[in-house]
Design the sequence.
């Protein structure tokens, strides 16, 4: 049984709020033996307060595994996505975090190959900056959970197109953030996606989902619901949903993945401590 590095996404504790005012909520991490967080910029950390945040986390025995941002490059014409990624690279370097998480985007003409070439050109200078800083840029696969991509032009929702993107980019500072539940919500066969993409994975998000009926029939209190087109999904306790986690772990680790598994159960605060404990136990015992 492999020994896995487990981390937690900070928004699970504070949403889009600051973290330094809520450090007492992190005691659950110590109790579970988890010593790292994924921070989001600009919510939990910025370039202006990175030193302060880093010192506060070190004082409670927590390090930073990844700096995420609500950034994307494809279809984004203002430069905001590029600036967020540039800033996240500098923050990650200062905090000793090895990864910066970002998203693909949307828009375009629906041609996945064309979209891949466009994105590869946009991300190339950022990858050079990341390599110089000793940081990986990891791209998280998405579904249309927020209604920004009704045409489903985001190629990261399709494992075959995401593989093509990774092969086109072919840069040592580029890896994928494999989110198995997001693939389930996008209608992909998750185990096949894991097998296909495993050699390119540099980070993993961990949660579970089930399909619920129209009007959220069957949804349980305390969990989040998301839609993708005509389909609705609800997060659930890890190991009880539609994600074949045992198969995913076998495929990722069989290809040599040894990086962090970041827990994000996407439940309401009253369930969080218990669900983090369930997730830690699940990943520790398999």
Sequence:
């Amino acid at each position: 049984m492999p020994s896995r590095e487990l981390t937690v996404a900070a928004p699970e504790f504070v949403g889009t709020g600051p973290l330094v005012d809520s450090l007492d909520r992190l005691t659950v991490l110590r109790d579970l033996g988890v010593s790292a967080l994924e921070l989001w910029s600009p919510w939990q950390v910025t370039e202006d307060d990175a030193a302060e945040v880093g010192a506060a986390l070190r004082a409670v025995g927590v390090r930073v595994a990844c700096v995420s941002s609500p950034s994307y490059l494809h279809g984004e014409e203002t430069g905001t996505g590029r600036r967020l990624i540039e800033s996240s690279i500098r923050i990650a370097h200062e905090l000793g975090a090895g990864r910066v998480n970002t998203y693909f985007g949307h828009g375009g003409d629906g041609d996945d190959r064309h979209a891949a070439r466009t994105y590869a050109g946009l991300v190339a200078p950022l990858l050079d900056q990341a390599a110089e800083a000793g940081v990986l840029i990891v791209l998280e696969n998405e579904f249309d959970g927020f209604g920004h991509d009704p045409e489903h032009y985001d190629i990261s929702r399709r494992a075959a197109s995401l593989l093509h993107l990774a092969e086109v980019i072919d840069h040592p500072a580029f890896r994928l953030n494999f989110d198995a539940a997001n693939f389930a919500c996008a209608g992909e066969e998750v185990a096949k996606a894991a097998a296909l993409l495993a050699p390119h994975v540099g980070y993993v998000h961990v949660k579970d989902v089930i399909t619920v009926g129209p009007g959220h029939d069957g949804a349980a209190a305390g969990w989040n619901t998301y839609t993708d087109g005509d389909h609705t999904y609800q997060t659930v306790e890890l190991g009880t949903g539609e994600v074949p986690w045992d198969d995913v772990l076998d495929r990722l680790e069989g290809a040599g993945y040894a990086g962090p598994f970041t827990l994000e159960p996407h439940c309401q605060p009253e369930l969080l401590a218990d669900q983090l404990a369930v997730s830690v136990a699940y990943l520790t015992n398999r």
User: Anything to note?
Assistant: The chain has a mean pLDDT of 96. The chain has ten helices and eleven strands. Residues 208 and 236 are 6 Å apart (CA to CA).
